[in-house]
Amino acid sequence: MTVVNSSRHVCPPPMLKPRESIAGMSPYHSPIVSRAGLRLDLNESMTGCSPRVLARLRLLSAADISLYSEREIGERMVANFLGLAPEQVLLTNGVDEALSLLFATYLAPGDELLFADPTFVMYPMFGEALGAQLVRVRSGEDLAFPTAEVLARISPRTRVIAIANPNNPTGLAVARADLLKIAEAAPDAAVLVDEAYVEFCGEFCGETLIPELASHPNLFVARTLSKAYGLAGMRLGVLTGAAEQIGYIRRHSAPFNVNSVALACLQEALADQAFVRDHVAQVKQGRERLEQLFAELRLCFWPSQANFVLVRVGALAQVFVESMQRRGILVRDSSSNPGCEGCVRITVGTPSQMDGVLQAIRDVIVESRRS
């Protein structure tokens, strides 16, 4: 309906508008366009999940599906597995929800979210949505975590510091001592250490920071069952921290956010640590094969502590990705990440898959150099 005022000026009807922080955001587009081919672009497990999880799935009843889930039972399982109290554990619909809840708890418009680039794209996305000021610290040419620079950028307005360890997309890890320095230097900020890939670490960062929660009340550690456990489709994340702080986050978490199928399979997934160990060993072997090939081809790569390797193929990164796709293998062009120009991220597949992947990489690089 058009509204006419007393001066006979025609006024447009009111229009619903989102918050400015949302209106100014660029939409996130899922990288999944097709499932055709070997998907080595999303850091998923190519091995799949434990057979014990599949067996549990086959035993689900109609009631298991039709009734609301009991997240607290799962939180007690995870707490026991990690050596924590249940009050220190919050299960979430993937780590993405854990990030969203944590950021919303501590970030207000104008507060500072501090992180190092390049890193997981969801950190700035969630911060921007809340109207936070994004404080980006650029990593050096070697893409190692810039500890000194991060410490220098902590201010009274810093409310959240997000660190992926190991990092995505580089696969590099941060020294434990450096992480603790940051947590101690910012007692008024929530310091999130995102350990999505920690199971794939070598000796350098093989120890989780979860034991440090008791002495660092501002520290949070996130874990996931999407990578080493092969449960990405079930969307099951874990957020841990001091009981008081997790209690604040729990206040605005939806009560039935974790689905009953994921919870039903959780016990079997955690119990089958032999499967996890075997999968991790397989990934490490495949990772080493990739790095050996890159060294042979004289390509710059970053020694990874995750289930993928970042390699610089140069100005023809897009051509490389397209050439691999024509061979039925999908890899991720990471050129848009700061400092990753000309880089491609490749997830480690199974041993039999890696035979074909390595040959395809060799063929593509040789062809590109000839042309």
Account of the 3D structure:
By secondary structure, the chain is α/β, with parallel strands linked by helices. The protein has 2 domains: 32-46 and 274-370, Aspartate Aminotransferase, domain 1; 51-271, Type I PLP-dependent aspartate aminotransferase-like (Major domain) (Aspartate Aminotransferase, domain 2), CATH 3.40.640.10. The chain has helices spanning 20-23, 51-58, 62-66, 71-82, 94-106, 122-129, 147-153, 176-185, 243-250, 260-271, 273-296, 317-326, 351-370; strands spanning 3-4, 10-11, 38-39, 89-92, 112-117, 133-138, 158-164, 190-194, 219-224, 237-241, 300-302, 308-312, 329-330, 332-333, 343-347. Helix 4 (71-82) runs parallel beside helix 10. The model has no long low-confidence stretch (mean pLDDT 94).
| CATH homology superfamily name of the largest domain | Type I PLP-dependent aspartate aminotransferase-like (Major domain)
Query: How would a crystallographer describe the biggest sheet?
Result: 7 strands, mixed
Order of neighbouring strands in the sheet with most strands: 4-10-9-8-7-5-6
Shape: globular
CATH class category name of the largest domain: Alpha Beta
**Class of secondary structure makeup:** alpha/beta
Strand content: 15-25%
What share of residues is helical? 25-40%
How many beta strands in the DSSP annotation? 15
Q: How much is the radius of gyration in Å?
A: 23 Å
Low-confidence stretches: none
The CATH architecture assignment of the largest domain turns out to be 3-Layer(aba) Sandwich
Report, as a whole number of angstroms, the end-to-end distance: 64 Å
Count of spatially separate domains: 2
Helix count, per DSSP? 13
Question: What fold name goes in the CATH topology slot of the largest domain?
Answer: Aspartate Aminotransferase, domain 2
